[in-house]
Design goal:
Layout lengths: L1 H33 L7 H9 L5 E16 L3 E2 L4 E2 L7 E11 L2 E3 L11 H13 L5 E2 L6 E11 L3 E26 L2 E6 L7 E8 L7 E9 L3 H7 L18 E5 L12
Antiparallel strand pairs: 1-8, 2-8, 3-8, 4-7, 5-10, 6-10, 8-9, 8-10, 8-11, 11-12
Length: 266
């Protein structure tokens, strides 16, 4: 009886030892998975490329796909002419000004100077998409459309000009080559190799040197919620619904750019 009792006691003790070690083994396995040895993350790649970091040997934009004639934001590009309370139409002169520049979708307000590794890459990609049929703005210089025009504002309405620039949307990813190897490698990508998440919008330019796009005169019925929003806005260039998408209180009339006189070249 005594011998049997010792045997049971011995087996029970072994089980307790095994259970005590199991969590330690799990932790030891988890640590290497959670801590890659210094590999550059996509956000670090983007930050280093944006700052033209000294750690980089090179940073380039690799294009994956593109789309011509991609329309930009819908913007009000003239002062608002007020014909509220009137029972008849009114002839009004509008001073219109719209500008375009190359936009890189890395972070808000980011521009890449031509003297940086990344900026030079964007310029070279732009050369690839600049053709005899479609001329684009490859650098970060601003191109402007500016003119005065007399048009008709409807009765009891607000009138103003709207603009949406035509752009070539080139999407792809960033490829960064570091001077010193990290985690055994020097090349890293953002957000990943082969991705099409980084967008570069190259404005399309007409042969006369002015931006290409959609231009229209918008009339908004006074007293409507849409009119109240415009009258209460303090922003000169505020975003608006697209052409024909303003609702029953809004009337849009497209103006061909060929009819615009006095357009200023850059």
């Amino acid at each position: 009886m005594t011998r049997a009792g010792r045997s049971r006691s011995h087996r029970s003790k072994k089980k307790r030892i095994v259970l005590a070690l199991s969590p330690l083994v799990a932790v030891a396995v988890a640590v290497p998975l959670m801590n890659p040895a210094g590999a550059a993350t996509p956000s670090e790649v983007t930050a280093d490329c944006s700052a033209d970091s000294d750690k980089l040997e090179n940073c380039e934009f690799v294009d994956v796909q593109f789309k011509r004639d991609s329309l930009g934001p819908n913007q009000r590009v003239s002062p608002v002419s007020d014909n509220c309370g009137s029972t008849g139409t009114a002839s009004k002169t509008f001073n219109v000004s719209a500008s375009v520049t190359r936009i890189i979708q890395l972070e808000d307000g980011f521009t890449a100077d031509g003297g940086t590794k990344l900026g030079n890459s964007f310029f070279e990609i732009g050369v690839k998409f600049n053709t005899s049929e479609i001329n684009i703005t490859r650098d970060d210089k601003t191109t402007t459309l500016a003119f005065s025009r007399t048009d008709t504002v409807q009765a009891d309405s607000l009138g103003f000009f709207m603009w949406s620039a035509k752009r070539t949307d080139v999407s792809g990813f960033l490829k960064a080559t570091y001077k010193e190897a990290q985690d055994g490698q020097k090349v890293f990508f953002s957000p990943s190799e082969g991705a099409a998440d980084v967008h570069v919008f190259y404005p399309q330019i007409l042969k006369n040197g002015t931006p290409d796009g959609r231009l229209w005169l918008r009339n908004v019925k006074c007293g409507s919620p849409e009119a109240s929003g415009i009258q209460n806005s303090t922003r000169a260039l505020r975003s608006e619904p697209g052409f024909g998408a303003g609702g029953e209180n809004v009337t849009d009339v497209e103006i061909p750019l060929s009819e615009v006189s006095g357009a200023a070249a850059p």
